[in-house]
């Protein structure tokens, strides 16, 4: 694509050089630059892309977008100065990849918990409706049936537009994506057109990045503020910030709830570890999910599908066939008669939701043993709260290692233990080795008990000192069950 056409999408302050040249690719990582590429120098949280302009030129960049022009200009390179490269990069990528969201219906899901489940279930549902569908999620990205591994909840704007461009080129009619607070704050979704947005809930998370809960809330809200009037904004009426999210949106507002009358109303009639019987808008449906938080997620899926023009009866029929997402309330049954549940719950609220769901089914007929840790180099303030919530709702708790990253596992464990009373400590063990912690929980469990292994869910690794070592909670449990 011609450079002059690519830069039409942004406000240019100054141009040095020729814009009548073909651009073969667009990058914000100088290591990926090839001949004929456009390099965008973005000031990130870790590094400033302006420091890598010369390296990008050495690798063949023929054009540079930056906020500050270098002292020495290369006569063969075109320099485009803009006020904000972080804001520009998404718009440039959208233009370069042919404005993919003008060719498909993109729905974004944001909130603290439930994003992966809702986005993945919508992807699975619309494929069952017979469409080609794309998915951008924490677990994996998909272009219809093709899996593309992922490292971030929301990719960088260039990767994002490249994936969406491939989805559009391969005939996808819909795409569903998780929209993280980081991606909104860092303008990674700039230039994308959304057909709809879904708000799940908001509780404490990512304060290591946002610093305050108010900043975190504002980042989530900004997504809805920017939705066009042609889109829908579906919000959770059961969350006290549900109405705040959509108060300034131009989109058509709709609500879902397990407690109040609204467009999409639900109720749990019966529950067990095999699933629930729900009432959704006065129609009964059996679903293969457990817990009120999942009932809320399913209402969001139902509401979004209806807002995208599907008939309620058809939506309910497919809803009854859907299965839980990997690592989200994933239940395994032991030969000894106890149940183990693997769940991604890594925030206090998510942990409470899962434990509540377990108690709703158990009704006091068995004990709950919780294995839980907290990630290293992340919000330290939630560590003691995680331990408190686990102790409050469990008969035994084993505090262990999660992804320690560059911290010492025992330091993280000590931060968690600091939130516990002497009374709590009577039922708490700390075992830094996660495999040993899970094995100990299984040794403690008796028929009718439930073990919750929380924090990692779908992840098949443990990140220690910058290295990802293979580790899968479900694999560990299956191995223990085989040897019982």
Account of the 3D structure:
ATP binds at residues 111-117. Pathway: Cell wall biogenesis; peptidoglycan biosynthesis. Meso-2,6-diaminopimelate binds at residues 378, 402-405, 455, 459. One of its GO terms (molecular function) is UDP-N-acetylmuramoylalanyl-D-glutamate-2,6-diaminopimelate ligase activity. UDP-N-acetyl-alpha-D-muramoyl-L-alanyl-D-glutamate binds at residues 30, 153-154, 180, 186, 188. It is a single chain. With 484 residues, the protein is an alpha/beta fold. The protein folds into 3 domains: 3-96, Udp-n-acetylmuramoylalanyl-d-glutamate--2,6- Diaminopimelate Ligase, Chain: A, domain 1 (3-Layer(aba) Sandwich); 98-321, Mur-like, catalytic domain (UDP-N-acetylmuramoyl-L-alanine:D-glutamate ligase), CATH 3.40.1190.10; 330-483, Protein-Tyrosine Phosphatase, Chain A, CATH 3.90.190. 33% of the residues lie in helices and 23% in strands. The strands form 4 sheets. Strands 9-8-7-10-6-11-12-13-14-15-16 form an 11-stranded mixed β-sheet, with helices on both faces. The radius of gyration is 24 Å and the shape is globular.
Based on CA inertia axes, which overall geometry fits? globular
The strand order across the widest sheet is 9-8-7-10-6-11-12-13-14-15-16
* Gyration radius over CA: 24 Å
From the N-terminal CA to the C-terminal CA, the straight-line distance is: 62 Å
Largest sheet: 11 strands, mixed
Number of strands: 24
Strand content: 15-25%
CATH fold topology of the largest domain: UDP-N-acetylmuramoyl-L-alanine:D-glutamate ligase
Mean pLDDT: 93
Contiguous helical run count: 17
């Amino acid at each position: 694509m011609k450079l002059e056409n690519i830069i039409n999408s942004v406000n240019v302050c100054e141009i040095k050089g020729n814009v009548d040249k073909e651009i073969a690719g667009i990058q914000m990582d100088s290591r990926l630059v090839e001949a004929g590429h456009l390099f965008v120098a973005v000031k990130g949280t870790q590094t400033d892309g302006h420091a890598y302009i010369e390296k990008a030129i050495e690798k063949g960049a023929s054009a540079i977008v930056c906020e500050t022009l270098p002292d020495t200009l290369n006569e063969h390179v075109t320099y485009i100065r803009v006020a904000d490269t972080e804001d520009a990069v998404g718009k440039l990528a959208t233009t370069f990849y042919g404005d993919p969201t003008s060719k498909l219906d993109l729905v974004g899901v944001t909130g603290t918990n439930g994003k992966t489940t809702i986005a993945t279930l919508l992807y699975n549902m619309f494929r069952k409706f017979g469409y080609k569908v794309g998915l951008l999620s924490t677990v994996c990205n998909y272009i219809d049936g093709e899996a593309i591994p992922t490292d971030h909840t929301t990719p960088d704007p260039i990767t994002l537009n490249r994936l969406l461009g491939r989805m559009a080129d391969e005939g996808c009619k819909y795409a569903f994506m998780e929209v993280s607070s980081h991606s909104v704050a860092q303008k990674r979704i700039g230039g994308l057109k959304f057909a709809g947005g879904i708000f799940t809930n908001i509780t404490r998370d990512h304060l290591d990045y946002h610093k305050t809960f108010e900043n975190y809330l504002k980042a989530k809200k900004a997504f809805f503020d920017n939705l066009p009037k042609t889109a829908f904004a579906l919000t959770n009426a059961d969350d006290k910030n549900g109405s705040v999210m959509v108060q300034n949106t131009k989109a058509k507002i709709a609500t879902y709830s397990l407690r109040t009358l609204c467009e999409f109303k639900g109720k749990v009639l019966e529950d067990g570890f095999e699933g629930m019987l729900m009432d959704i808008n006065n129609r009964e449906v059996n679903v293969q999910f457990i817990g009120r938080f999942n009932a809320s997620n399913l209402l969001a899926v139902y509401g979004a599908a209806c807002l995208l023009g599907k008939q309620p009866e058809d939506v309910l029929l497919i809803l009854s066939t859907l299965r839980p997402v990997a690592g989200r309330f994933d239940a395994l049954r032991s030969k000894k008669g106890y149940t183990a549940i693997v769940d991604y719950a890594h925030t206090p609220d998510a942990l409470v939701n899962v434990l509540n769901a377990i108690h709703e089914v158990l009704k006091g007929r068995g004990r709950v043993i919780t294995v839980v840790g907290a990630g290293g180099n992340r919000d330290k303030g939630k560590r003691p709260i995680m331990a408190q919530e686990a102790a409050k709702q469990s008969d035994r708790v084993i505090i262990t290692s999660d992804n320690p990253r560059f911290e010492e596992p025992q330091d993280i464990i000590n931060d968690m233990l600091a939130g516990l009373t002497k009374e709590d400590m009577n039922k708490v063990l700390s075992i830094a080795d996660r495999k040993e912690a899970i094995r100990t929980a299984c040794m403690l469990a008796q028929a009718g008990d439930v073990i919750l292994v929380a924090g990692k869910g779908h992840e098949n690794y443990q990140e220690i000192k910058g290295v990802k070592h293979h580790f899968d909670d479900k694999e560990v449990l299956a191995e223990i069950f085989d040897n019982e």
